[in-house]
């Protein structure tokens, strides 16, 4: 795997970057004293790389404000779900013209109230693999179970007048095992009612980019970032890898 490959690179005496074969090798000290942009070919040793664990290389990037943030872990998401469950679903927001609602109370000690809203198309419910639904009061386990069966799952909470997204520190959308996040700085979240315009389309695709747009969300993209320190006896150069 990639991690063991990097470790093997460290064990080798020399790492060769093979681009620009037409150029002769240039010492790192010369490169460090030069002004960018230039093209060089180097012969260097890989001294260190960061992060040490591959999963830590994955970040969330906003292409609008160019900010980077850590990918929230499951505990963070679970905490937001618990906080939203403290507000009981508002029955007045159930069974509208564009979604059908189901609500029940759990049999455990907490007796949580859970509401699921299934978005309709042409006044009909779609097959699970084509269905977008919204859930209130669910646990992390329940949300994951739904996201494996239905195409899109949006965690929401009730207000007095409409359903709304959770805090954007939580994902605004789940598709299978993928969680989609929005930029808190650049987004201007709208109420869930905005989704009714997509539901009214002839064939709603429920693409994350379209869902984000109608909800006023600037989506964050998953990026891969690593830092390599290269040495050749004349100097040390930090090289950064950044890719989608």
- Determine the number of helices (DSSP H or I, runs of at least 4 residues): 6
- The N- and C-terminal alpha carbons lie at a distance of 19 Å
Question: What is the general shape?
Answer: elongated
Helix-strand pattern: HEHEEEHEEEEHEEEEHHEE
Strand content: 25-35%
Count of domains: 2
- Let me know the average pLDDT: 88
**Assembly category:** single chain
Most strands sheet: 6 strands, antiparallel
The computed structural class is alpha+beta
Stretches where pLDDT is under 50 for at least 5 consecutive residues are: none
Proportion in helices:
10-25%
Rounded to an integer, what's the Rg over CA atoms?
A: 24 Å
Q: How many beta-strand segments?
A: 14
Describe the structure.
By secondary structure, this protein is α+β, with helices and mostly antiparallel strands. The protein has 2 domains: 1-63 and 223-243, no CATH class; 68-217, no CATH class. Helices cover 20% and strands 31% of the residues. The protein has 6 helices and 14 strands. It has helices spanning 2-11, 28-32, 74-85, 140-149, 196-199, 208-214; strands at residues 15-16, 43-50, 58-61, 68-70, 99-105, 113-121, 124-125, 132-136, 152-158, 163-165, 173-175, 178-180, 221-231, 236-243. The strands form 3 sheets. Strands 1, 2, 3, 4, 13 and 14 form a 6-stranded antiparallel beta sheet that branches. Strands 5, 6, 7, 8, 9 and 10 form a 6-stranded mixed beta sheet that branches. The longest helix is centred in the N-terminal third of the chain and has 12 residues, at 74-85. The mean pLDDT is 88.
């Amino acid at each position: 795997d990639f991690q063991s490959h990097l470790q093997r690179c460290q064990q080798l005496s020399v790492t060769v970057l093979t681009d620009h074969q037409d150029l002769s090798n240039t010492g790192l000290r010369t490169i460090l004293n030069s002004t960018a942009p230039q093209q060089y070919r180097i012969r260097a040793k890989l001294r260190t790389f960061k992060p040490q664990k591959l999963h830590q290389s994955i970040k969330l990037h906003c292409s609008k404000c160019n900010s980077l943030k850590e990918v929230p872990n499951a505990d963070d998401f679970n905490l937001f779900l618990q906080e939203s469950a403290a507000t009981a679903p508002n029955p007045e927001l159930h069974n509208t013209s564009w979604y059908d609602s189901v609500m029940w109370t759990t049999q455990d000690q907490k007796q949580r109230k859970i509401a699921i809203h299934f978005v309709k198309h042409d006044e009909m419910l779609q097959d699970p693999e084509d269905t977008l639904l919204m859930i209130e009061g669910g646990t992390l386990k329940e949300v994951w179970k739904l996201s494996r069966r239905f195409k899109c799952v949006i965690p929401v909470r009730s207000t007095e007048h409409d359903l709304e997204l959770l805090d954007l520190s939580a994902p605004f959308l789940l598709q299978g095992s993928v969680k989609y996040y929005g930029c808190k700085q650049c987004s201007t979240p709208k109420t869930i009612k905005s989704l009714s315009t997509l539901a009214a389309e002839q064939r709603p695709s429920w693409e994350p980019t379209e869902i984000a747009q109608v909800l006023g969300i600037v989506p964050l993209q998953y990026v891969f970032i690593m830092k390599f320190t290269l040495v050749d006896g004349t100097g040390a150069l930090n090289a950064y890898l950044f890719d989608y």
